[in-house]
């Protein structure tokens, strides 16, 4: 699958890595805005965000995982939850790393439940490293452009995948903390004019 992604800016980091963020010009595509204030994310309880929906969206959010082993943002979610594309942050995702005293925090885009269409074949989730400091929150900029989902995380990780939801109501957004409670600091959403 070839994906035409949004323009991004690369910057050298002190640790010899590269930072990656969407270019500021994308903000000119924003239209209707919705804001979600800080709130608790109770463990193992999916929270569907009222007033935040669409298949051409920009989302900007900050989540403090606290003790949760996973926090998940679901986009392109049908009303009954049958279709959804998941953006997950896993804390210490590999048990071997915990045993050996090393962290292995990971970011994932999972499209295995993105479509009920019979002609769409599932692909394994896309997973990449996202090592966070002990008290560092997860900062996400997410762009949904109909069949493309792009994720910028903490200015240093980028992922993109295609999703092909079948249902017209697959436009919802929800949050989920797994294992223990987490905290949403804030979420802002904008409807987006066509990127292409």
Give the topology, please.
Layout: E1 8-12, E2 18-22, E3 30-36, E4 39-41, E5 47-53, E6 56-64, E7 70-77, E8 85-90, H1 95-99, E9 106-110, E10 126-129, E11 138-145, E12 148-153, E13 157-162, E14 172-178, E15 182-192
Antiparallel strand pairs: 1-2, 3-15, 4-15, 5-14, 6-11, 6-15, 7-8, 7-14, 8-9, 9-10, 11-12, 12-13
Oligomer: single chain
Strand content: over 45%
Count up the helices. Answer: 1
**Looking at the structure, what is the overall shape?**
globular
Find the structural class using helix and strand composition.
mainly beta
- Spans of at least 5 consecutive residues whose pLDDT stays below 50 are none
Instruction: Find the count of extended strands (DSSP E, 2+ residues).
Output: 15
Distance between the termini: 17 Å
| Sequence of secondary-structure elements | EEEEEEEEHEEEEEEE
Main pleated sheet: 7 strands, antiparallel
Please estimate the helix content: under 10%
Taking all Cα atoms into account, the compactness measure Rg is 16 Å
Average residue pLDDT? 87
């Amino acid at each position: 699958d070839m994906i035409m992604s949004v323009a991004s800016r690369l910057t050298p980091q002190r640790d010899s890595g590269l930072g990656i963020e969407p270019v500021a010009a994308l903000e000119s595509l924003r239209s209707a805005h919705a804001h979600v204030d800080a709130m608790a994310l109770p463990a193992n309880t999916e929270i569907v965000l009222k007033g935040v929906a669409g298949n051409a969206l920009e989302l900007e959010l900050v989540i403090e995982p606290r003790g949760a082993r996973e926090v998940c943002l679901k986009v392109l979610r049908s009303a009954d939850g049958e279709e959804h594309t998941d953006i997950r942050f896993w804390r210490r995702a590999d048990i071997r790393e915990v045993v050996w005293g090393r962290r292995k925090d990971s970011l994932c885009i999972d499209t295995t439940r993105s479509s009920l269409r019979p002609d769409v074949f599932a692909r394994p989730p896309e997973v990449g490293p996202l090592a966070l400091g002990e008290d560092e929150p997860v900062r996400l900029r997410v762009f949904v452009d109909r069949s493309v989902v792009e994720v910028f995380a903490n200015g240093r990780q980028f992922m993109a995948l295609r999703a092909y939801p079948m249902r017209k109501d697959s436009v919802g957004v929800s949050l989920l903390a797994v294992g223990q409670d987490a905290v949403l600091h804030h979420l802002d959403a904008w409807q987006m004019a066509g990127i292409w």
